[in-house]
Amino acid sequence: MIRRLIRRVFGGTPAQGRKARGPRVISFAEHQIDRTSISSAALKVTQKLQEAGFDAFVVGGAVRDLLLGIIPKDFDIATSATPEQVHALFRRSRIIGRRFKIVHVTFGRDEIIEVTTYRGPADEGHVTDDHGRILHDNVWGTQEQDALRRDFTVNALYYNPASREIVDYANGVADLQVKQLVMIGDPEQRYREDPVRMLRAARLAAKLGLEIEENTRAPIESLAALLQNVPAARLFDEMLKLLFSGHAWECLSQLRQQGLHHGFFPLLDVIMEQPLGEKFVMLALDSTDQRIRADKPVSVGFLFASLLWHEVLAAWKDIQSQGENPLPALFQAMDRVIDVQEEKLAIPRRYSVTMKEIWALQPRFEQRSGRRPFRLLEQPRFRSGFDFLALRAASGELDNELVEWWAEFQNADNARREAMLVTEPTGAAAKKRRRRRRKPDAGPAEAAGSE
Ligand code: ATP
Ligand code: MG
Which of 203, 230, 257 is the last residue of a domain? Predict the structure, then answer.
């Protein structure tokens, strides 16, 4: 569809220039994107703003996705009204953000429409850090100025539901046609203003199957270190967008190709370079992608536990080789890995707690005698722990027999469960020996009583 559209609109020549030369207006007859593809909440917002005398357009990712035949996951609105004017029009709205003020308008139980006011040129009225990163910026501007402040040409498209026209200031439609992701303006300066744009480039290219255009790609490698200046919470948000984009593996490969894993997700390289680790991460990401595409819920804690498992394994081995017993060594290894990641990525505590719970269950799956398997079944994290075990087996880390045993055990009746228990006399004897070693002064009566 796009190919035909481009031929009609531009006579078959993809746009070459990257500077805006006034907008191109693309009519409904050409692009065929109907109002029915737009969420009714977004339509209500544009209509109300327009009735109040303001400009209002669906903008950014939604227009881009619709042109590519993808169902947008959200609809953002750009308007000439200030945040205060928008807020005054919608009862269920609130102004949020410090760096950029925007308005969230809520519909139904949880649909949120993000409304942003046209922003002015980047070189006026903003505060930057020493590397050129914009810290505060609330200068309003015209639609054209707003378009040129956006990151990629394919994201600077404005759809007016009333006229069903698309306004294109930066040749975004043409770039979509030739599958190119092109930065608006001078790429190096734009990355300095906001280093997260480098991650967005990797994610959008992977998700949309676009190629990062040469000038847009060139500065990334040498500027990658600027990501260290980005607040950890924002990096974490971007990481979640990457991992839950439905194209996680491609996104991570893109990050690596662009040299963006260093200092951002510092352990990624190590993980992906271990033969077992790579397979494990790939399986975990693949199952996440499939769940996202099937609209099923996904667990952030589980995925992070998977991404970092081989780091934990390496640290666990290392600590044991220094003479520590297996279980305390595992707990020390978990803390070591989590500490590094919490610092770099600000993994919120609620996720690191889940990760630790999943990891800590793993050795317990190997104990198949006595009451222990029954106690493990009662753990609230049993299901996640078991799925994790299955992933480890699928990656070749351990024998599938253990997974099959647990698959049967959890669904069996009590009699069958008792029959399945493994007797481990040598293990019990070893345990007694350990206890005796730990209590050298204990007399025979005391040792017997402690059993
Ligand atoms: P997604 O499919 O992930 O929602 P998106 O492009 O819509 O992709 P959003 O984060 O929803 O991403 O941003 C909406 C729009 O805001 C973008 O299309 C782009 O025009 C603009 N934008 C977002 N982040 C930046 C940025 N860091 N610099 C410049 N413009 C940005
Ligand atoms: Mg969006």
Answer: 230
Q: Please state the domain count of the chain.
A: 2
**C-alpha distance from residue 125 to each of 129, 134, 142, 234 (Å):** 14, 10, 15, 23
Q: Indicate if 151 belongs to the active site.
A: yes
Question: Which atom of ligand 1 has the smallest separation from the CA of 150?
Answer: 30
Q: Are 292 and 377 in contact (CB under 8 A)?
A: no
- What residues contact residue 133 under an 8 Å CB cut-off, 6+ apart? 192, 193, 194, 195, 226, 229, 230
Question: Is the CB of 195 within 6 Å of ligand 1?
Answer: no
**Residue 59 Cα to ligand 2 middle (Å):** 9
Question: Which one of the ligands is nearest to 210 CA?
Answer: 1
The first and second tokens of residue 326, run together, are 């297996």
Quote the pTM value: 0.79
Catalytic, 110? Answer no
- Decide which of 230, 252, 277 is a domain's last residue: 230
Nearest Cα neighbor of 197 from 265, 267, 258 is 258
For residue 269, indicate whether it is catalytic.
no
Instruction: Express each pLDDT in 44-101 by its tens digit.
Output: 999 999 999 999 999 999 999 999 999 898 999 999 999 999 999 999 999 998 768 9
